[in-house]
Amino acid sequence: MKDDRTPAALYDRIREGQDAALGAADRAPGRERFVRHSAVRRSPTRARARTLGLLAAAALVAVLALVLLPARSLQFEVDGARGRASVWMAAPATGTSELRFSDGTELDLREEGRARVEDVDARGARVVLERGTVDARVVHRPDTRWLVQAGPFDVRVTGTHFVTSWDPGEGHFVLVLEEGSVEVTGPTWQGERSVRAGERIDLRVSTQARAAVAPASDVALAPRASASVAPRTPEPLDAPTGTSPVPRTSPSASAAIAPDGGNLERIRELAAKNAHREAYDLAVSSGLLDAEADAATTALLADVSRLSGHASSARKLLERLRSRFPASRQASEAAFVLGRMDFDAGQTGRAQRWFSTYLAERPNGPLAVEARGRVLECLLRSGDRDAIAKAADLYLEQYPSGPHAEVARRASSSASPSSSSSSPSASPSSSSSPE
Amino acid sequence: MRLPRLAPAAVAPFAVARVTFVSNAALVAALGSGSAEAAGELYDRHARLVDRTLARVLGPDSELEDLRQDVFIQALASIGSLREPDALEGWLKGIAVFVARRAIDKRARRRRWMSWFSSDEPPEVPDVEGETRDESRAALRAVYAVLTRMPTDERIVFALRQLDGWELSEVAEQTGMSLATTKRRFTRAVERFEALARLDPTLSSWMNGGAR
Predict the structure, then answer these.
(1) pTM above the 0.90 mark?
(2) Closest residue by Cα to residue A324 from A346, A356, A294
(3) B119 reaches A (C-beta below 8 A)
(4) ipTM of the prediction
(5) What percent of chain B has pLDDT above 70?
(6) For chain B, which terminus, N or C, has the lower number of CB atoms within 10 Å?
């Protein structure tokens, strides 16, 4: 029966439920409205006259806008959140980070790549690729001006599709032109070099050459760097007792001791049926709660403990998950869950630090929006107005239409640092800033 | 020769003429010329499809009828832009996705301004027969509560692919994204949905049961 409760089965259930409800819907009144609407549509002559009038008005507005308004700088998003110039972004170890510009230009930063949008204006942007590979599809317009700086190489673009990568350790530069053409400057030749569709540049530069042009990799890293790629990983912000900074090496999440397969399988089945209490009892009686297991099993046992109301066991397992598999996805999710547990228990100071830990480890993770919002909620309970204003502004910058956006807006407008007469923090440690 | 008059009882008091359109091409041509019969036919053939697309993206929705109306009115207004009559169904689905996205954005703005009065909770789910009704209702509410917390683009891609079974190429075509972007967005959406669902008491057992 295990397969009865899979994500696919859930989606089937949702689909069937919706179809059943839609099958019973009465669409006759809607049909009547629509047919009536179609019958009273304007006559073709009037519609044509109206269209011409609208076109003339639109043309006039466009001319006025061109004359009176300055060109508006391009906007961009990083993985669906509003992007900011000069902020480093890091692609996850598996997957890409997506930069989307308002003119339709798309840049995909591939696995473990690091880059930032340094300048952006109405005609394009300057993107600094510190390391890794970027796949760029630049939309061509007559005045387009795009520049990708990969170490000591400048790739000037007007409208094209290309892939470029830079490895600062090896001084290795690669450029592959899929469409269009670009101009490249670099320390290995004089002036600009034109590269056309179908061509590929693959070269290594000497240490001296790189030192002479001060590569972008020398720039200090912002603390939002992903733990999976950052050479100088930020410490989790004031991580609560029991956590340690994420080390660069950890046991493989799949190489741990496998506990008793039969009981484990039964626990899985019980959990799938929401029988968490029975699953927990079996885990205790079979000794699995204390056994060393792989990351996925430890996460399952933590879920079973938490959902059956055994918070202290859940906490122990989550902390074990973090200490044994610090670089795993489950460890970061454990930080988030610990934050939720502390939050529900009223320990907002600790909760805030757990959410910050998740954000430090997975700045682009699937729970990042939620974690950023929870940090704000924790601070709101602490009464620290400066930190609230900072966290609210940061949230709005990153997620202007996120689920906590309204809370952030109200917090930002009411938490003026100058009028700070806040009450003492709810928790002795809750005054630390999330960033 | 004069034909005998038919007795009144043998004649229907009035006859309802129903125009049918044997092909999409005929229907589209008639819509372009402003035929009310064609509008009715369009509605009869595709209202359920439009409802399904809207419902997959938005979930249980008290404004479904108004949104369906928006889709058909937009379709009628822009029927001249439909180059391939045989693409009518896909074209309508594209308009439905557009209307659903606009509704999501509008509601986000409304929440921003009216947050004191409105709630993020999805509206009541219509009753579904069967012994698993309560669980299905709870799951339906929970799924859309999670989707509400996701970025709009990811929510739409996820709903169309996972819940309605569209091919990613069709999602790309109807949402105006490149196929590569659609694939990436879908991967990210699944990750995000499952991460959030694992934290939900109603959905966690579905996420943990069986291999994905």
Answers:
(1) no
(2) A294
(3) no
(4) 0.80
(5) 78
(6) N
